[in-house]
Design goal:
This protein has two domains: about 130 residues, Elongation Factor Tu (Ef-tu), domain 3 (Beta Barrel), CATH 2.40.30; about 50 residues. It has four helices and eleven strands; from the N terminus they run ββββββαβββαβααβ. The strands form three sheets. Strands 2-1-7-8-9-6-3 form a seven-stranded antiparallel β-sheet, with helices on one face. It has a two-stranded antiparallel ribbon with strand order 4-5. Strand 7 and strand 8 form a beta hairpin. Helix 3 crosses helix 4. It starts with 10 loop residues before the first strand and ends with a strand.
């Protein structure tokens, strides 16, 4: 099937994976979804609702791509689909799949993120089984930066070090001892926690004490 070389081709690339490919046919349509979560405020009274914003959600993009190599007997898996497949695989160095870009001309903004799912349907084969026509459905999720499991765990540990520590009235959980275990002193920890008037051992059960400023 001939391809119009005068058309601006959509491009899928990843500097982390060394992939830079033009699609065979531009997608017929793109669907971009953006979810904005709002919860009903628990203390709302009367008939009118009060909504509270919870957290931002990334954009998601869905597309369907067609690859056709029947006329010149091109193996569409080897030529095209294997490259996209690379973008869904865990890189040995990064310990995660790579960051990707989808670009189509200059009117649409570049979509940066990851391929969240990939579905391939092969629809035509040569007599020897070579796939020469396929449809690929991709679901993308937008991202500004990516972290592997170890990086996320390290960041969580750093964040947790500056958050409140639940205490009780036992000797081992006195806030002067808790402070010492977290590399600070009881006066600094009490000040960070808004508990300036507490004596070293005078922490009521269940009081949240902050070991440092986050």
């Amino acid at each position: 099937m001939p391809v119009d070389d005068n058309l601006t081709k959509a491009n899928i690339s990843s500097s982390e994976a060394g992939v830079d490919m033009d699609v065979y046919f531009n997608p017929k349509e793109l669907q971009v979804d953006k979810t904005v979560p709002w919860n009903e405020h628990k203390n709302t009274e009367g008939n009118d609702s009060t909504l509270e914003f919870t957290q931002s959600k990334p954009k998601e993009m869905n597309m369907e791509l067609m690859f056709d190599g029947f006329e010149d007997e091109t193996d569409v898996y080897d030529e095209y689909i294997s490259q996209i497949e690379t973008l869904t695989m865990v890189d040995d160095t990064l310990k995660r799949p790579p960051m990707c870009l989808f670009t189509w001309g200059s009117a649409l903004p570049t979509f940066q993120g990851v391929i969240e799912s990939m579905s391939v349907k092969y629809t035509l084969f040569l007599p020897d089984g070579t796939p020469v026509r396929a449809t690929v459905t991709l679901k993308w999720k937008q991202a500004d930066q990516l972290k592997n499991a170890a990086e996320a765990k390290a960041d969580a540990s750093k964040s947790g070090a500056s958050k409140g520590v639940q205490t009780n009235a036992s000797n081992s959980d006195r806030h002067d001892l808790t402070a010492a275990q977290n590399g600070t002193d009881h006066r600094t920890m009490a000040a960070n926690s808004g508990q300036d008037n507490l004596a070293p051992g005078g922490v009521p059960p269940g009081t949240t004490m902050t070991t440092g400023k986050g």
